[in-house]
Amino acid sequence: MAINLQKGETIVLDKAEYDLSLMTMGLGWDVRKSVFGKAFDLDAYAILLGTEDKLLANKDFIYYANLRSLDGTVAHSGDNLTGAGQGDDEQISIRLSQIPEKYQKIILGVSIYEAKARKQHFGMVENAFVRAIDAKGVEIARYSLSGDDSYAGKISMLMGAVYRRNGEWKFRALGNALEAKMVEVVASFSR
Prior knowledge:
By secondary structure, this protein is mainly beta. It has a single domain (3-118, 128-187), classed as sav2460 like domains (Lipoxygenase-1, Sandwich). Helix content is 5%, strand content 41%. The strands form 2 sheets. The chain has a 6-stranded mixed beta sheet, with no helix packed on it. A 6-stranded antiparallel beta sheet has the order 2-12-11-8-4-5. β11 and β12 (168-178) form a beta hairpin.
């Protein structure tokens, strides 16, 4: 049974309990019914970080225009332009056992495409979630965020982080809403 995480909670991704040869981070969201008719395009991304939580190279940013890490250990499912349908809207697959040692953390985020021009923000989004699924399709953990007025004006969301600690991989629910565009979020992790 999946663990439902709260903001800031962390779990160990246990190799004995789950098949971590391929872990998928599914991200999903809905748009509040009161704003239907507006085109919302949320973009999921992964930022591979080295020590000191810094981006080592531009290619370590995995998103709709760079779908795979250079070594193939992290892959994006592709851009979902509407978020329509049930389940995951976008997925990021991670081969945890093959991630090079130089990477210590993977930040998982979502940003609203052209949010300022379209006057959109996360206060208009509901049922946002990130979930970890093992190679056999077993849901390990889920972190859900609901539409919240405190997200008004926020156009990016750091949903979670997968990171190494003492030889183990862990997952932490973040839920950090930001006023920054996706490129600004990525730049904040640059050297």
